[in-house]
Amino acid sequence: MAYRPLDETTVIDYIISRPSMKQVFAGFDALSVNEVGDGNLNLVFIVQNDAAPAESVVLKQALPYLRVAGDSWPLTRERMRYETQALLKHNELAPGLAPTVYDWDDEMSIVIMENLAEHEIMRKGLVARNRYPHFADHISTFLVNSLFFTSDLYLTGPEKKLLAAKFVNEQLRKLQEDFVYTNPYMESPENNWNPLVDAEVQAVRSDAELKMAIAEMKLAYMTHAEALIHADLHTGSIMLNERDTRVIDPEFGFFGPMAYDIGAVLQNLVLNFLSHYGHTPDRAERESYQAYLLDMIGDIWRQFARKFDETWAANNRGELVPAKYWDFPNGQEAFAAYRQRFIHNLLQEVAGHGGVKFLRRMMGIVSVWDLTSIEDLKKRAVAERLAIHIGRRWLMERKSVNSIDDLTGIVREETMGVME
């Protein structure tokens, strides 16, 4: 079938044409379709059997351009293959923490997957001050499994290189290099920011030390092919409820720095923390939820560090430091010390990449709904200024970070006394 973009009038016929859908739908006579895509890249439809509403799927199709910028910004449809490969790998390595894939059509750039009808986008749930008691456990497990088991800590050299060759993802990597690490900090036509923080934006653009630090993190992003990373793991790419968590939308996936994914999760939680200066006027309610978010950030990192260390100790089959490498007196103690040094360095890189991502969201092409949904620009500016200050400090102070408390401490210091 030659490629053509689907719409609400053609999706059902396409579903009926796919043999795999007979395993999902008992019949095709009562199918309905609803376009729900509000993302930056793709078309997204929910198809449901109205005669048996539990039978439903999500169909996602890549367009040949960047949707947020329009057809003036061409983009390869190959990204849907990368997304499907990443979803399948995530299902293999972290079962139950990604949606199930039912079908994949390379020619049409379509993936059909599980509809998470009982889940909500985390970003919106956080703005509504919902609480997720299992999220720290779930996301730390996802991060450990997806990163460790695709790295040189677990894979042999040939295994790692063959897997990495399947995730070149050159165009979406280029987008992130430009939109996260370069364009926001100079004149570029797609940039957008709240005019009330223009002074802060211009200060970032003219800060030589800061821009050198950003360039250092960009170099790490471009060259540190440590593991298969999601590369867009914000709270809009997580669907969950009180019991279950799923990571979605890994179309940016490639072999990059582990710290990028971890930093994205933690930084997005801080952005939500800041958004409540606009969304939650009641001080007691706001402070209670903000404290919950900072506790969550600490829990995620501590659980990640513990699980990563335990997983590495139990699965040291990779070629970086094979078991025989530590075959000497006190070798196991040295191996444990090396693991802790690795995790400590990883936290410092989390601070660096997370810091850059704070800045890009305040002055680049795409902000976050947590903040853009604050209609009062003055209240929104309060959160945005704080994000810029926190991001700068995470980045510039990264080499002195020794614990997650140092990063949450920066958030506390920068927000002390705000809107009392």
The averaged pLDDT comes out at 96
Spans of at least 5 consecutive residues whose pLDDT stays below 50 are none
Count of domains = 2
Neighbour order of strands in the largest sheet? 1-2-3-5-4
Described by the principal axes of the CA atoms, the overall outline is globular
Q: How would you name the CATH homologous superfamily of the largest domain? A: Aminoglycoside phosphotransferase (APH), C-terminal lobe
According to CATH, what is the topology of the largest domain?
Answer: Aminoglycoside 3'-phosphotransferase, Chain: A, domain 2
The total count of strands amounts to 10
Q: CATH top level of the largest domain?
A: Alpha Beta
Gyration radius (Cα, Å) is 22 Å
Q: How much beta, percentage-wise?
A: 5-15%
Q: What CATH architecture of the largest domain do you see?
A: Alpha-Beta Complex
Brief account:
The protein is of the alpha+beta class. The protein folds into two domains: 11-114, Phosphorylase Kinase, domain 1 (2-Layer Sandwich); 120-415, Aminoglycoside phosphotransferase (APH), C-terminal lobe (Aminoglycoside 3'-phosphotransferase, Chain: A, domain 2), CATH 3.90.1200.10. It has helices at 11-17, 79-93, 122-127, 135-148, 157-165, 170-181, 198-205, 208-223, 258-279, 283-314, 331-363, 369-372, 377-396, 404-415, and strands at 31-35, 42-49, 56-62, 101-105, 110-114, 120-121, 227-229, 238-240, 245-247, 254-256.
